[in-house]
Design a protein that fits this description.
29% of the residues lie in helices and 22% in strands. It contains 14 helices and 26 strands.
């Protein structure tokens, strides 16, 4: 309904522009050609014609409509505050008001002796900074922060990075009416929606220059986040809460759950469009068409064992003679083991303790060689041990973190047999992801798709499997299933800043000022991760190229200023002899 209303408003604005063009002495038919009409409108309001090209960009064009309305009002000598406000916030109707009101004449902007200092110095620069940033953020690069340790130590908690949206093709916003630079929640609020669904665009993606590959780190919209409960969405999805607490509890608004050490009251259940779902970042270990299986913690793709990521982490059971070795925050910080991912498993007698440490293999080897460490053993969930938190959450498939599958990831055009035995693997794809919302039920030995029996299904898009390098502490595809291609956002390309979280590193991550003179291991700042390109095999430092670029820019500006001050001959004498002919 919102799309129809918006279309009507646009048509009204075009009709209004028709009359405005005639009042301005231009052929009215030019107002009826989309994009071109705003290109021509630039001549009427004495603004750049190329502004019209911005009207192609969903979301940003809504801002530009108001900008055009503001300047048109001034061109028709409607310069009172109430007129400028109406023209900026209701430009569709205001175009018609200017065009069809016979008492309003066109004057142009030549009678405005000088631009208002506010408009020239503040309004125009701010508006176009927002417009430019929105275009860059929406279609080219967007800044992200790594909030969780899912990819530790490849991408770490506290990494500030830029994500390339061009590589797989930038997605066109499906909810273009939104607060600038906010994702799904307004700043300084915990549950106020930052977007309106009055206008909804279909899924569209611009052409990209690559496809997701095995092993790439990818940013995507969290598929399981299509439904959340306000107040708890930053902890877990609605579906996960249902699996934990049951439908009966989750439909009770007074039900209280314990999340993150806090009591949180069950909130309002809401659905989110794809582009407003949480951003997650994981490693794409399986692409569309792959057969995936995990055996005793080792990943197999198409029956071929895959190399473990260099910085992959697992939980290890570490048996220590605690009478002789003190395990505290300093010990954990020394080995860069997060205190939030370490704990006691059991006490054996009075002087021996078994700890669970989440760490990479090289750190496990270092601790194994530490005096008074009795043993270090990687924890592996045994085959056949069912885990309720592991996809597909069905006892028919007793899978867990370390023993999972086999499962085939559908690709576009692939046909897979569907029956009551495997429907739980593909249910969300058929009912939600692949082709809009459909009803999927079972009746006896039959699977019903919108009430009709099916024995196979041909998929309309590809599906991908995402896993964290932090293999035992990552909410990934093992928890909630596949990622559809229309959820994929882009690829991390550049880490420009990295700081430790004091919750994870309470010793080295505590002080800011005190860390300025400390190295990456002892201080809060991970200097070795500053200004780094995200490559296939880890981070690649760009500190020297960035420093050279800054020096070149500084040097060019310095030389350019001196060149303008002196003639070429004088500048040559200044360089060679240290003085010029000028006194």
């Amino acid at each position: 309904m919102g799309n129809i209303i918006f279309l009507i408003l646009v048509l009204i604005s075009f009709v209004g522009l028709y009359k405005i063009f005639e009042k301005a002495g231009l052929p009215g038919w030019k107002a009826l050609i989309p994009i071109y009409n705003f290109w021509v409108l630039g001549t009427i309001i004495n603004r750049p014609k190329w502004w019209g090209l911005i009207m192609i960009v969903p979301g940003v064009n809504l801002i530009m409509y108001g900008v055009y309305g503001f300047h048109l009002a001034r061109a028709f000598k409607k310069r009172m505050n109430n007129d400028l406000i109406m023209a900026s916030f209701m430009p569709y109707l205001y175009f018609a008001y200017l065009g069809f009101n016979k008492g309003i004449k066109f004057f142009g902007v030549t009678d405005i002796k000088s631009e208002s200092s506010f408009i020239k110095n503040w309004a125009d620069p701010i508006i176009f900074a927002v417009v430019a940033a929105s275009i860059i953020r929406g279609f080219f690069f967007e800044a992200f922060t790594i909030p969780t340790s899912s990819l530790e130590k490849s991408l770490m908690v506290g990494d500030f990075l830029f994500v390339n949206k061009v590589c797989y093709g930038a997605k066109v916003p499906q909810t273009p009416i939104a607060f600038p630079f906010a994702h799904h929640t307004l700043p300084f609020t915990t549950g106020t929606q930052s977007y309106l669904e009055w206008i909804k665009l279909p899924y569209m993606r611009l052409p990209g220059y690559s496809k997701p590959k095995n092993g790439e780190i990818i940013v995507f919209n969290y598929p399981d986040g299509d439904t959340v409960t306000i107040g708890t969405q930053q902890y877990t999805s609605y579906y996960e809460m249902v699996r934990q607490y049951g439908y009966q509890n989750m439909n009770n608004p007074n039900f209280t759950v314990e999340l993150g050490g806090m009591s949180v009251k069950n909130g309002k259940k809401v659905g989110r469009p794809i582009d407003k779902r949480e951003h997650y970042v994981k490693r794409c270990v399986g692409i569309a068409g792959d057969k995936l299986e995990i055996k005793d913690g080792e990943l197999f793709i198409n029956d071929k064992k895959q190399n473990m990521p260099e910085h992959a982490q697992h939980f290890y059971e570490v048996k220590i003679a605690t009478r002789l070795l003190n395990i505290d925050e300093f010990f954990l910080d020394k080995h860069d083991i997060y205190v939030t991912e370490a704990g006691i498993k059991e006490n054996i007698g009075e002087d021996t303790t078994v700890y669970l440490f989440n760490m990479p293999a090289n750190v496990a080897e270092d601790i194994k060689n530490t005096p008074n460490v009795i043993s270090v053993k990687k924890r592996i969930d045994p085959k056949g041990e069912y885990s309720q938190s592991i996809f597909p959450h069905n006892r028919r498939y007793p899978w867990n973190n370390d023993n999972f599958g086999p499962m085939t990831l559908p690709s576009e055009g692939m046909t897979i047999k569907i029956d009551t035995g495997n429907i739980c693997l593909y249910e969300k794809m058929l009912s939600t992801y692949d082709d809009g919302i459909h009803q999927l039920t079972t009746s006896g030995a039959q699977v019903l798709y919108d009430g009709k029996p099916i024995t196979s299904y041909t998929f309309k898009q590809g599906y991908y499997w995402m896993m964290g390098d932090n293999r035992h502490n990552s909410a990934d595809s093992r928890s909630w299933g596949v990622v559809p291609f229309d959820h994929i956002v882009g690829r991390p390309v550049f880490v420009w800043l990295s700081i430790k979280d004091p919750k994870n590193n309470p010793v080295s991550g505590k002080s800011i000022l005190g860390s300025l003179t400390k190295n990456s291991k002892e201080g809060k700042f991970r200097w070795d991760r500053f200004m780094c390109y995200v490559g296939e095999n880890g981070l690649v430092s760009w500190k020297i190229p960035v420093a050279i670029l800054v020096l070149l820019i500084f040097g060019y500006n310095f030389i350019d200023k001196r060149r303008k001050k002196y003639s070429f001959a004088d500048y040559f004498r200044l360089i060679i002899f240290g003085k010029s002919s000028k006194k």
